[in-house]
Design goal:
Layout (H helix, E strand, L loop, with lengths): L5 E6 L2 E11 L5 E10 L6 E5 L12 E4 L8 E9 L2 E5 L5 E8 L3 E4 L5 E2 L5 E5 L14 E5 L4 E9 L1
Antiparallel strand pairs: 1-2, 2-3, 2-5, 3-4, 6-13, 7-12, 8-11, 8-13, 9-10, 9-12
Length: about 160
């Protein structure tokens, strides 16, 4: 079988193969287990799952993937421009947030911290290294507040 981790031939007409797979949960956590394929040459293989000890039965409850293979997450990207007074809010859980200030000095409040002004011509980026199975995301919400005569752009990404 293609992609298996091992193969054992118990008899001329019986073949047992296995592979290590991962049971991946929505929160990104993952549990490795063994999937056994046994054929007797008379039809489709019988499939069973066990823990890594090879004997204790295992039932996958999440998405089954090959271990070490990170599914490609879908990314929702947004560009929000604020001209004049107003707010742009990015809720907690984004993978990246970038601010580019064209005019004025909008303030940035992160989480519950006090707002800090960013002068015209400045930019800032907040991001995580990895999302997907590692589940990394920015823990805080961002509130960008513009003033009269101000102009800024907020770019953000998040996994969906």
């Amino acid at each position: 079988m293609s992609g298996t981790s091992g193969s054992v031939s118990a008899a001329a007409a019986v073949d047992a193969e296995y592979e290590i797979l991962c049971d991946t949960q929505p929160d990104g956590s993952s549990t490795p287990f063994l999937r056994h394929y046994t054929t007797t040459g008379t039809g489709a293989p019988a499939v069973s799952d066990t823990t890594l000890d090879g004997t204790t039965a295992y039932v996958a409850t999440g998405t089954v993937v090959r271990c070490g293979v990170t599914p490609t997450p879908q990314i929702d990207s947004k560009a929000q421009r604020q001209t004049g007074a107003g707010n742009v809010t990015i809720t907690a859980g984004a993978r990246s947030v970038t601010l580019i200030v064209f005019a004025g000095a909008p303030t940035v409040a992160i989480g519950g911290d006090p707002a800090v002004p960013f002068p015209a011509g400045s930019s800032g980026t907040w991001s995580v290294d990895q999302g997907g199975k590692n589940g990394e995301r920015l823990a805080d919400a961002f509130v960008f507040t513009g003033i009269a005569g101000g102009d800024f752009l907020v770019l953000s990404t998040r996994e969906i």
